[in-house]
Amino acid sequence: MATITTGAEVARSLLLLRACEALSATETEADVLAAVSELAGTGLDTGSLNTYISQALERAHRRDATAGVADTLQQAIVSRTPVVEHYEAATCYLPSDRLERVGGEWYDAVAGPGGQLTMVMGEVAGDDVAAAGRMSRLRSMVRAYIVDRSESPSALLRRLDAAGHALGEPVRATAVVAVVEPRADGAHRLRWSNAGHPPPVLLHPDGTVESLGGEDPMLGASRSASRHTTSVPLRPGATVLLHTAGLVHRPGRTVDRCFADLHRRLRSARRTRLEDLLEDAVAHVGAGPGRTVAMLAVRLPAEG
Fold first, then answer.
1. Same domain (yes/no): 136, 284
2. What is the mean pLDDT of the chain?
3. 43, 72, 101: which is the final residue of a domain?
4. Taking the CB of the first residue and of the last residue of the chain, which one, N or C, has fewer CB atoms within 10 A?
5. Is residue 216 part of a domain?
6. Minimal CA–CA distance to 301: which of 186, 210, 152, 178?
7. Model confidence over 104-145: pLDDT tens digits?
8. Residues 107 and 154 in one domain
9. Of the candidates 72, 89, 104, which is a domain's last residue?
10. What is the 3-state secondary structure (H, E, C) of the chain?
């Protein structure tokens, strides 16, 4: 005899299926409770219901713990905006919308003797807690090398490569090290070395914007990669901007188009405060899936 299924039974089965799927994909305890309220009206036996709830809560707690670790790491590895004498500085960090919310991006600024300021921006491949761990190790080495001795940006990056390969754990990453320093005549200059990272951007006091070239291989690719230090004079009121690829790269657009868009945003950005400039630079961009935006800007005092 054929089994006759009523409309009510079909509806109940569909409701049960949808609620169970909600529990299997749940991310928070609130989601668990919402799914349970649906299951409660399906007539599912108590044992099965308890199993679904237990598994869903375990997943929710595990994801909450991962997010908590990520938040702690983020606070530890992303520097506060540096307060440096003679210069104005500002930073911006927008984590990706992944659960971990932290990845391999970092920035730093270390003041040296005689008004010297070393800026660093780097990015380790990945957008998770593991990438953050590799990045934290690399960042600590960079900070130690900056205060260890006075050397060119390219020499510092060569030491990073040598140390990573000597220890058997080279980290593949992009990075740019830029040094703002006063000269004997009272003017300033910028010296930088770029290991496969998006180029530094120089905002001139007259409103013009340029990207500074001179890109060498990324870190970790070779123990003896050729590296160079390039320099350019800085006028009073000039701004140096370091940023991650997340600020410019967009799917379906050429690299030239992406940087042209960034230059356009910077030319029209507010400049009274550096925080306003960074806010306008990232407007309508923001972070996204697997994409984090980090920026570090330093402005020289205006003439007079």
1. yes
2. 78
3. 72
4. N
5. yes
6. 186
7. 788 999 988 888 999 999 998 766 677 777 888 888 899 999
8. yes
9. 72
10. CCCCCCHHHHHHHHHHHHHHHHHHHCCCHHHHHHHHHHHHCCCCCHHHHHHHHHHHHHHHHHHHHHHHHHHHHHHHHCCCCCCCCCCEEEEEEECCCCCCCCCCEEEEEEECHHHCEEEEEEEECCCCHHHHHHHHHHHHHHHHHHHHCCCCHHHHHHHHHHHHHHCCCCCCEEEEEEEEEECCCCCEEEEEEEECCCCCEEECCCCCEEECCCEECCECCCCCCCCCCEEEEECCCCEEEEECHHHCCCCCCCHHHHHHHHHHHHHCCCCCCHHHHHHHHCCCCCCECCECEEEEEEECCCCC
Enter the tokens of residue 68. Answer: 């908590």
Identity of residue 217: P
Closest CA to 124 of 154, 103, 94: 103
Same domain (yes/no): 115, 174? yes
Domain hosting residue 222, numbered range: 79-299
Q: Which residues of 166-183 are buried (b: 16+ CB within 10 A; e: fewer)?
A: eeeebbebbbbbbbbbbe
- 177 forms beta bridges with 120, 193
Question: For 208-255, how does the pLDDT look when each residue is reduced to its tens digit (9 = 90+)?
Answer: 999 999 899 999 888 888 999 999 999 999 999 999 998 988 777 888
Query: Is 187 found in the same domain as 55?
Result: no
Structure tokens at 205: 């006091």
Please indicate, yes or no, if residue 1 is contained in any of the structural domains: no
Residue 242 counted as domain residue: yes
CATH number of the domain bearing residue 217: 3.60.40.10
Contact 22, 31 (CB under 8 A): yes
Domain count within the chain = 2
